[in-house]
Amino acid sequence: MVLEKQAFLFLNIAHNSMKQSLSDTFRKGGFKLSPEQFLVMDTLWDEGVLTQQQIADITMRDKNSIVKLIDGLESRKLVTRVSNPSDRRQNLIKVTSYSLKIKDKIEALAYEAVGKILCEISREDLKVFIKVLAMMEKNMDPESDLVSMAEKYPTKKNCNG
């Protein structure tokens, strides 16, 4: 198999498997939450109240997909939309008290899933992998800078807790 084709195929398979693993872990833990919904919740838990556009920018998703994700989170009573007093055309997205109560459990499940996925991968290999992914993203979008984004929105915990 051509190396480039293998890279594309393996990346696609790993991406889909990762999403399925995270979904399964959440489901087994008693939560109906997609990986994309988790990313929105994790962003809100870390950053606080945000506009839909800010969530889209941070998670690097289009605004329409964010609207659908927020609809699902709102139906599960995890977030609420409130009008922005500064600009009534915008919605502010706030986490609910219920989501704050289950935050630690959901985060623990996410770290459990990530721990299984990254099991037996050395820190050095992981650093190289992240560097390569950032380079791939830059090749697809020259404006993208994942390293700067990671520094702007740092992970508050590491996988070991």
Helices and strands in order, then pairings?
Layout: H1 3-28, H2 35-47, E1 50-51, H3 52-59, H4 63-75, E2 79-84, E3 87-95, H5 97-118, H6 123-140, H7 146-152
Antiparallel strand pairs: 1-3, 2-3
Helix pairs in contact: 1-5, 2-4, 2-5, 3-4
Strand tally is 3
How many DSSP helices?
A: 7
- Mean pLDDT rating: 90
Task: Please mark out the parts with pLDDT under 50 across 5 or more consecutive residues, or reply none.
Answer: 156-161
Give the proportion of residues in helices.
Answer: 55-70%
Please name the CATH architecture.
Orthogonal Bundle
| CA gyration radius, whole angstroms | 17 Å
CATH homology superfamily: Winged helix-like DNA-binding domain superfamily/Winged helix DNA-binding domain
Q: What is the topology, as strand order, of the major beta sheet?
A: 1-3-2
Shape: globular
Strand content: 5-15%
What count of structural domains?
A: 1
Subunit organisation of the chains: single chain
What order do the helices and strands follow? Answer: HHEHHEEHHH
> Which fold name is given in CATH as the topology?
Arc Repressor Mutant, subunit A
What kind of sheet is the major sheet? Answer: 3 strands, antiparallel
Helix/strand/pairing category: mainly alpha
Distance between the termini: 39 Å
Give the CATH level 1 class: Mainly Alpha
